[in-house]
Known about the structure:
The protein is of the alpha+beta class. The chain has two domains: 1-30; 32-163, CATH 2.40.50.120. It is built from three helices and seven strands; from the N terminus they run ααβββββββα. The chain has helices at 2-27, 34-42, 156-163; strands at 46-56, 71-83, 92-95, 101-110, 128-135, 142-143, 150-151. Strands 1-2-4-6-5 form a five-stranded mixed beta barrel. A hairpin with a 6-residue loop joins β5 and β6 (142-143). The longest helix has 26 residues, at 2-27. It starts with a helix and ends with a helix. Residues 9-29 have low confidence and may be disordered.
Amino acid sequence: xxxxxxxxxxxxxxxxxxxxxxxxxxxxxxxxxxxxxxxxxxxxxxxxxxxxxxxxxxxxxxxxxxxxxxxxxxxxxxxxxxxxxxxxxxxxxxxxxxxxxxxxxxxxxxxxxxxxxxxxxxxxxxxxxxxxxxxxxxxxxxxxxxxxxxxxxxxxxxxxxxxx
Length: 164
């Protein structure tokens, strides 16, 4: 009886570990094929490199289901606009002094780890990278809904190549 109980505990532990490993692999997807990134680039409104300047949780979105997204707004300080779309008017330019002009844009992302939102990239203040952005439904907000919509800055040359 004791042996059966030990085997049951071991089995449950192995199953739990494999489930956690599968979730980690699917939520930590960082390697995207060139073709996958090219498709994301083609469907995007804008592509920028930059740094998360600030995160705000003051987005007034009423939950419509049990899969509440917990939307956050990231303000991105733009280093470079790699792709722009004619209707993209969501870039704000601020002139600090005679020599420095800084551009910003905002994007929404779900902070929720719910099954409906866990694959969306999550961002934090100070994070640098490349954002492949599109509009969220009918709203004027940008989002990066796919793990391939955010790339590390070390992939900048590859993204430039794929945009040509």
